[in-house]
Design goal:
heterodimer; A: about 575 residues; alpha/beta; 3-stranded parallel beta sheet; 14 strands; globular; B: about 270 residues; mainly alpha; 11 helices; about 70% helix; about 0% strand
Amino acid sequence: MKKSRIFSIALAGAMLLPSLGMLTGCGGEDVITLRVYNWEEYIDEGGKGTFIFDELHELDENGDPVRDEHGNHIHIESDIVDDDYKAWYEETMGHALSEEGPRVLDDFCEWYERTHGQKIRVEYSTFGTNEDMYNEILLGNEYDLLCPSDYMIMKLAAEGRLQKYDESFFDETNPENYYVRNVSPFIAEKFATNAGLNIRKDPDGEDIYWKDYAAGYMWGTTGFVYNPAALEAAGIAEEELQTYGWDVFTDTRFKGKITAKDNVRDTYFVALGVTYQDELMELDRTANDYIPRLTAIFNATDEETIGTVEPTLMDIKNNIYSFETDTGKSDMVNGKIWLNYAWSGDAVYAIDLAESGKSEDGEDEAKAYLNYFVPEAGSNLFFDGWVMPKGANREAAQAFVNFMSMPQNAMRNSYYIGYTSVIAGEEFEMLDYADYLYGYYPEDEFEEGEEYDEPVDYDLSYFFYGEKHGSDEYAGIPAEPEQAEKRQLFAQFPTPEVIARSAVMDYYDEEASVRINELWSRVKAESLEPWTIVVIVVAVVAIVGGVLLLKFGDKIDFFRLGPKKGYKKVKEERA
Amino acid sequence: MKLPRFSRKTLCIPYAVFLVFFVIIPMCVILFYAFTDRDMHFSFSNFLQFFSDPTKLSTIVYSIVISLITTVICLVIAYPVALILARSKLKKKFVILMLFVLPMWINFVLRVNALRELFNLLSQADALAWLENANIFKTIVGMVYDFLPFMILPLYTTMLKIDDSLYEASADLGGNAFTTFFRITLPLSMPGIMSGVTMVFLPSMTNYVVSDMLGNAKVTIIGKFISDYFGNDWHMGSMIALVLLIIVFASTLLSGGLKSDENVRGTNL
């Protein structure tokens, strides 16, 4: 009796243990928890391969740290993680910068405790798609900070799931408001005007503007990574792509050599581009309403549009090599496809990867030079921003955003994930970063008498001064002509021309969402002719019947694989 | 108050808890979602929509066809192998069996990825360039590769159990190889065939990792369909899952998989 009691208590204890762990995992009472829900691989993780480590160590051609004869890493001086940077770090964090590359999340906790006098712990989790994140929210999971994309921010705000940033967050006179002080005026303008989208209302009937609900994190465009050598071999001039734009998706010369994304959002967007390419080209780009009209075309979800787009989507499906989620980059690097529809950050990654002569799994491969272009007819401009769901710890969440918005931290995150930060920097620190990545100073690199391309001015004034900047203000870097025209620099820091023809995505309202999902399933599924279905159903019934016959046939006289006739006779006679 | 007595039945508690949390509750949730609309009101609309939508029916039929082809190919390959392994006097039988079973112990996604790379390599040869866009072919090869051990094992274990004296009797009575096969081996290995067919046919209808990776996501089987719907419409996703469940149940019933006396699910290696 006693024994079983102990046993059952032990059993109950064992079952309770995990839940206890959850409660005590937060540490003592004086520690608050900040629950951050972000994209996978979307923040500096510290250590090897991150900004600080890579800058302060001698690296070999594979990007691995070189070791000296004692097996130690070799530390070097860096132009960007310089004395100023180290001084900033020491001032902010209260201790010297470790060359091993601290995690930005750990730094945040230390910084928060130092500045707010409160211990904090970050509970960090990740998602793969905006929709996954949305489902988690719908299921009632609670977070303090999310990082959805533009359209999802709108959706969450329209459903009344978000809380606004505090007004004090936008007070530029407060030196601790790193976000407003450092964010690019260009991004701030887009966030204040919703970049040409129709203004939606939240459940309280108020107009929704991104700027109230979201602080930017990363941004970029979509376009195509392409393999110029493969195109040349096929007799297609690189310049043609510029005039072609979207219809590469249906051009049979690219059959089986181009990929689309395996999600309804991006591929529907693409199909709109292909279908309405001519209309998009005819729009008057100098007109005031150009961006709203462009945005409207790329966000059309009415039944008529869906009907028009459907055959295009079918053509796309028949022409592409695959619908991909992450295989596009490696297929591009190993030369299997010529064109890959990609987000700019992924494009930079693919171009780097191909150039380094390594495949994704680290094997040596022939080097390939890949380029990037954005369709002339217009493309997608996207943002990911930090938002706070209702019930979030606003003070800690805003502090987190501010910490990530310090230019020095923006560099770390941007370096790690390869996308472009929304941060410009009060002193244009991010221009130094762009310069450090892509600045081109041939006079330092080449000996006298060697031939080299003259650098071109790569104008990024729009990003640092805003779209309506004066003519005497200039912010830019000297760049290699190729970089400025079609390579990593062009992908990571889009030119004003690319920006001027890019539209953001809106969310689909409920009816449109149903229509588009049905469209997507029609496109993805194999549509069988009615007679094929009949034939197959008959075949299946025949097989099922056959199986039944084999199993139960014995019980039916007619089918009995009975004994030989002679035996039967004998049996009958006896009877 | 008397405490409940500890008995052997108490040992069932962990499993019962598991059953409730991971089988019964999820089933109820699926059922709930399948028969509600977006406003969470009870509704048959998903049901009606499913059976009036040619796309969804096509996809189901299409998945069944792909599964059937996979199953037949698996059976054709596995039967002789199992027969040889079980009946021959080979000394290193165990080694051969292990060769077929070993891949099962390697991560499945890794294997499919390896197969993908292999196809890439092959399609670089001019004669095999057609492989590049042969999505259905590649999907079926991938499925067969993946599920072959599940066919071989039950066949092998059933055939091992066939009494040698039956073969001796057949020989005594003048039965040739052909008669022996059709009179003894085939009928007696029927439970193994049934078990193998179930174990290949059902998972290959839903295993969309293979069709995504080898079929370039251009081959859409019912599993992928469900996963796509769960991105934004849980109700329809649940309804499709429910229909699939019924198909699975029906085919299990058909193949006698629910009979308790058949002890042939021989994956006990």
